[in-house]
């Protein structure tokens, strides 16, 4: 193919290109848009909270091994509260669905003492906010009570974790 043939084949290219680009929406524009994400269902909220509590209990058990005395006792108490919360949430999930929910068991690893305490503090603060939010969204009075009680426990844990950081810094 010589230069003249190439130029002849490109003749009219501008016109074709205009039609292609003006033909309509792009593939991205044609793709279906995901539905606007609304609040999670009650069951999804329960699952997420079960996961959080189960991991929180395991986390506190691991962190407690780095401490002795009163600090260790407090951290083990937090772990026990997490297990109790998880069991209660699992029972509520069963009542609602007729199915058992077992958490995945994939949890955050523990690092050094102080970083682990800071992580625990942040987890408790986030947990309290999650429970408050769940309590505001639920229409089930019995779940609202569970969520508010758990939020209060998370807030207490956060205060105690903060004090432990201050005592050990």
Describe this entry's structure for a reader.
This protein is mostly helical and 169 residues long. 75% of the residues lie in helices and 0% in strands. The protein has one domain (43-168): Up-down Bundle (Ferritin), CATH 1.20.1260. Helix 5 (69-97) runs antiparallel to helix 7. The model has no long low-confidence stretch (mean pLDDT 88).
Helix content, binned percent: over 70%
- The SSE string, one letter per element, is HHHHHHH
Radius of gyration: 27 Å
General form? elongated
- Overall mean pLDDT stands at 88
CATH superfamily: Ferritin, core subunit, four-helix bundle
Strand content: under 5%
Number of helices: 7
Strands, count = 0
Structural class: mainly alpha
CATH topology: Ferritin
Q: How far is the N terminus from the C terminus?
A: 79 Å
CATH class placement: Mainly Alpha
Unreliable runs, pLDDT <50, ≥5 residues?
none
CATH architecture: Up-down Bundle
Largest sheet: none
Overall tally of domains: 1
Task: Give the gist of this structure.
By secondary structure, this protein is mainly alpha-helical. 75% of the residues lie in helices and 0% in strands. The termini are far apart.
Give the arrangement of secondary structure elements.
Elements: H1 3-10, H2 13-21, H3 27-30, H4 42-64, H5 69-97, H6 113-137, H7 141-168
Helix pairs in contact: 4-5, 4-6, 5-7, 6-7
